[in-house]
Amino acid sequence: MWPNSCEEDGLVNWKRIIQIMAGAAALVMAVSLPIAAQVPPAGAPGIPASPVSPRLVGDTSAIAKEAQGWLADLIKINTSNPPGNEQIAALYITGILAKDGIKTEILDLAPGRSAVVARLRSAALADPSKALLLVAHMDTVPIDKSKWSVDPFGAVIKDGYLYGRGAIDDKGMLAANLAAFIELKRSMARLNRDVIFLATADEETSGDASIRMLIAKDWNKFAAGFAINEGGNVFVKNGKVQYAGVQADEKVAFNIAVIARGTSGHASQPTKDNPVTHVAAAVAKIGNYTAPVHFTSIVRRYFEGLAPLEDDETGKWMRSMDAADRGEHAQRVISDASPLWNAMLRDTIAPTVLTAGVANNVIPAEARANLNVRLLPGDSIVALVNDLNKLVNDPQVKLEVQPNAGLAAPSSSLESEFYKLIAKIVPQEFGGAPALPFQSTWLTDSAQLRLHQVQALGLVPFPLAQEDLKRMHGDDERIPLAAFDKGVDLLVKIVTEFAVAH
Ligand SMILES: [Zn+2]
């Protein structure tokens, strides 16, 4: 029959929801009723679903419009992390999925912090290694309200943009995942793999309510062989989609403390071992250091694919980065052209925090700096620290790698059926613009998934210009509504093509 139509896992614990709702009544009331509530979903009791061909995705404008409403509502639920309060967003999502008869399970992680999971089944006993996981996080970074021109939690629509914290990162994708998941349910198509919806908490601080804990506690509830997550982007240049960067790997973050100790004393009689001077000199050397270029296979393929899309001059240098005679010059030209390209080509070290001093007239006993390091996959932090020690060359300065380093995970395969499918659909969607393998310089939850043998690919599906991308984690974050709709369309197509039985 249609195995995904009525057999989802999990139970809604309404008693608990009511309790939580009562406790959070004020917050919940502040969120307007979902626009979606006014739209009777096809396939709901009493409303026959239209006989959609399981192989074809029809017009997605109606589901995209509904999803705009969900996105606006999710923005109005303040999930700034800390403290997160993702449980309220999880309950909201439960309500949206319930309208289409999809059961959810709320997975509690900490007081007020929960994830939510739902499943569309392909068979009574489906193979988890074939399952597709749609994952997005509900928390956002905090805001500096004084810098926003609109209410960051108001979901204000202006000039075709929806403004709000999380509009792109990651509530936009959360709403688009909901759309793809619900559209699949409504199609009543027969699935060839389970499709799992997962909304996570605490992504932005990777703390004790994050996917790491969720995997440790509840992995069997969302174990999958494939996942789509944030991490890559559809890049718009000069008003057109240039390419979709499909994240298949990511750099690994470390922090290194630079520490100098000396003799504290009266600032009227300076000493040679003043730790401020030593740390400042070390930071200046490190800050000006450029690590050597090291091509990972993903980055190599990225530049091969990007070269023909750039202007002739840039393309020429991209193709020459390996050349024996002018490779080094080419690497410099490309690195100087873009901080993103520079960071994709090498380990980077950014000094971020300086700490020293107790009073203007006191030489302190200690000075410290923090270096935020992003290593290429496969590179060694021990080797980098050795290089930096040689560079600093000061016995008074110590470099200490801090705990809580990032995760080194295997990369996702560019030969998997999932990657190949995305690479096929992207040009159809964006007038020939290709999908390119992408190694993000930033961290995502996908590293945790890749460590569990998941082919996780990162693609925030909305075509976005640099002007909008740079507002992520910044002020006046916004998403063009047309880009949102396009992203929903892309995601619906990817999920449908991958999961519907052919
Ligand atoms: Zn994010």
Could you give the topology of this structure?
Layout (H helix, E strand, L loop, with lengths): L13 H10 L1 H6 L30 H16 L9 H14 L4 E7 L2 E8 L11 E6 L19 E2 L2 E3 L7 H17 L7 E6 L10 H8 L7 E12 L2 E11 L1 E10 L3 E2 L8 H13 L9 H10 L5 H8 L7 H11 L1 H7 L2 E9 L5 E2 L2 E10 L5 H12 L4 E5 L15 H13 L5 E6 L5 H5 L4 E11 H4 L8 E3 H19 L3
Parallel strand pairs: 3-6, 3-7, 7-16, 8-15
Antiparallel strand pairs: 1-2, 2-6, 4-5, 5-17, 7-8, 9-13, 9-14, 10-12, 11-13
Helix pairs in contact: 3-5, 3-16, 5-16, 9-10, 10-11, 13-16
The chain binds zinc ion.
Comma- or semicolon-separated keywords:
single chain; 502 residues; alpha+beta; eight-stranded mixed sheet; four-stranded antiparallel sheet; 16 helices; 17 strands; 34% helix; disordered N terminus; binds zinc ion
